[in-house]
Amino acid sequence: MSEQTRFQNVVNGTKCDSTTGRWLASTNPFTGKTWAEVPHCGVEDANAAVEAAHRAFIRGPWSTMSATGRGKLLRRLGDLIARDAEKLAAIETRDNGKLFAEMSGQCRYIPEWFYYFGGLADKIEGGVLPMDKPDLFSYTKREPLGVVVAITPWNSPLLLLTWKLAPALAAGNTIVIKPSEYTSCSTLALMELVNEAGFPEGVINTVTGFGHEIGPALTEHPMVAKIAFTGGDATGAAIYAGAAKGLKHVTLELGGKSPNIIFADANIDDAVKGAISGIFAASGQTCIAGSRLLVQRSVYDEISAKVVNFARAARLGDPMDANTQVGPVTTLPQRDKILNYMAIAREEGARCLLGGGTPQDPALEAGWFVQPTIFGDVSNDMRIAREEVFGPILSIIPFEDEEHAIEIANDTIYGLASGVWTSNIRRAFTMADRIRAGTVWVNTYRAVSFMAPFGGYKMSGIGRESGQYAIDEYLQTKCVWINLAEGVANPFVLR
Ligand code: NDP
Q: Average of pLDDT values for 273-301?
């Protein structure tokens, strides 16, 4: 491997390898070949990154810079990402195998978060309290938390990082980023732009390596104030338990088993496209995957046939090719997990309507592909309908009426997203009220925006990312009391 394919971390504004001297290979899921290396960091590296972020927070100049100055830096970073969006997207596709069309769309959209939160940075206001006690003047301040550890997964590394980075920085925090060991390269490439934008040293630091090796050192470090995590629910729960020891703030975004609900009164062709985009886009490796397709009984056969036909025609191939519609999955363990769920679904009696294994095409042999797969006659108590697979497997579940649809939709430990397809406006509002999930899409699916709060109910997580709510997740409130009276009141009673 040539030196050019090695990426380095940045700690305290300085590029560095790991103190262990070891490297982790990054493999292209389409070719199955290693294409880059990132430092394989240990606990010492994790500690150094946290200490650098803490110094930058305590000493400045970040914490002493005006909020307007911080906002300008965020907007500059947004401009640089816009300039290099295609380059960053190509790195992401090589790292995680998702379509270049998808990753470049994401990378071109990411600057909007930096512009939005850059604009919000100097609109974080406290207030003067209409105090009930004469001679006391009180006001509130909104202050940053301190060092934030951002832990990101492999499915959309830069987008999911941005959802943490932009509001955390706008609020005045400093950051340590731990990207997924499978897809660290785009985060390290982003650090070149952070440097070019002129962020002071120590404000944004990175540490690459295995979660099980350096994760606890980061998330339980006494100098860390908050953990912002996207990933699986088991890891999220472990991080939450660790964070509790130090009473740290958390934002957890943990995936789901989202219902995508088609009523007989829907525009059927649109609903079929919605079902496809809900599960086969990104090879189903998305937390918002509409993996449970709930279909009203009277149109069940028609919709099942149309969804199967649509999915059968999907073109699998090189994710860099603009004509490819379904790429490989990101990791070998993930492919094994998906294939295992196909076996579980069959054992539990689900009827395989499409796919169910790996494609036979020799052109795809080197890549980590699985076939777009559809199971019919799924009942909501089967594991395939209850557990997050994170792959291109759709379960179609019939329902009778509105009440029945709500019962099935909410019968899950998760509550991240949902879709409703109907032409009945009353029904659209009723469903939006009664589905217990952080996002409800009506007659569309898989839409996100920098201004739209995103996050889960139940086991799908804690807190919200994007939108104005997101900045509150990175702030704490201070109340200041000024005594305007002469002398001090009776010291033995509460004033
Ligand atoms: P994880 O939740 O284990 O990984 C997500 C991130 O957490 C990675 O950066 C990982 O690092 C890190 N991590 C792992 N263990 C720890 C720890 N103890 N402390 C701190 N950080 C840690 O996801 P997996 O890659 O194992 O995927 C498993 C399942 O999770 C998937 O099949 C899917 O169901 C779900 N998932 C959900 C996502 C979502 O968007 N909500 C995204 C990705 C996965 P490292 O990679 O080095 O282990």
A: 96
